[in-house]
Design a protein that fits this description.
The chain has a domain of about 45 residues. The chain is α+β, with helices and mostly antiparallel strands. It is built from one helix and four strands. Bound molecules: zinc ion. The site of zinc ion has 7 residues, from loops. This is Small CPxCG-related zinc finger protein.
């Protein structure tokens, strides 16, 4: 007989769908010819990609 897991497993963040960190190009190259990118973390999960199950329910209500 198997027991259901009691530990809450983190859910994929509904805001970023698991892609918590994205690179944004600034659109202009620097003087070295490189294309600088800014990294932005998902504000909902702070770059984690997952949120506790409790917070997923709160987000769904909003
Ligand atoms: Zn997220």
């Amino acid at each position: 007989m198997t027991h259901p897991t009691t530990t809450p497993t983190p859910r994929i963040c509904p805001n970023c769908d698991g892609f918590a960190t994205v690179a944004i190009t600034t659109g202009s190259r620097d003087r070295h010819g490189h294309l600088p990118t800014l990294t932005a973390n998902c504000p909902a999960c702070n770059g984690q990609g997952t949120v506790p199950a409790r917070r997923v329910r709160e987000a769904a209500r909003a």
